[in-house]
Amino acid sequence: MSTKTPQTGPKPDQVAAAHRPVSRPRPPRVTGAAHVLAAAGYSLQGLRRLWRETALRHMGLVGALCLLLLAAIGASWVQMGIFAILFLALVATEALNTAIECIIDHLAPDWQEFARDAKDLGSLATMCMLLATGIFLVGTVLVQFELI
């Protein structure tokens, strides 16, 4: 005759439920100008959320310093505009990377290989944009000083 010890702790479905956010009713659909205003509000909420990421705050500081550098070395408006577009693409990539991390942290609170892969790929996308922006910046500086 075997005796089983009672299982202690929460059941797996209770653990999963603990990681789910409290659901709220879906906001009503809006159209026309109200839709544009609502979309702008969602974008600002996203920017506020992204601002909590240290990486974005560092990017913002470095981006502003780079624009000052470009202005100081006499870069053209076109060069500064291209840098600004690359920088905005970098911010968008970081936003997508952060969104991936939020979803993965929700779906896989424990370490799982798919979670690591998803986060690594998001990080790679951000690094590619950082490199593209950096290469453009270095190239612009070299051209301004007639080194290439």
Automatic annotation (TrEMBL):
Binding positions (substrate): E94, S123
Keywords for the protein's UniProt record, in alphabetical order: ATP-binding, Cell inner membrane, Cell membrane, Kinase, Lipid biosynthesis, Lipid metabolism, Magnesium, Membrane, Metal-binding, Nucleotide-binding, Phospholipid biosynthesis, Phospholipid metabolism, Transferase, Transmembrane, Transmembrane helix
GO molecular function: ATP binding; ATP-dependent diacylglycerol kinase activity; metal ion binding
Keyword Magnesium: yes
Keyword Lipid metabolism: yes
InterPro entries named in the record: DAGK, DAGK_prok, DAGK_sf
Residues binding ATP, per UniProt: Y42, E53, E101, K119, D120
Domain of life assignment: Bacteria
Co-factor: note: Mn(2+), Zn(2+), Cd(2+) and Co(2+) support activity to lesser extents.
EC number: 2.7.1.107
Active-site residues, as the UniProt record annotates them: E94 (proton acceptor)
UniProt: a divalent metal cation binding residues: E53, E101
Function according to Swiss-Prot or TrEMBL: Catalyzes the ATP-dependent phosphorylation of sn-l,2-diacylglycerol (DAG) to phosphatidic acid. Involved in the recycling of diacylglycerol produced as a by-product during membrane-derived oligosaccharide (MDO) biosynthesis.
Protein name, as recorded: Diacylglycerol kinase
Source organism per UniProt: Roseovarius nanhaiticus
Lineage per the UniProt record: Bacteria, Pseudomonadati, Pseudomonadota, Alphaproteobacteria, Rhodobacterales
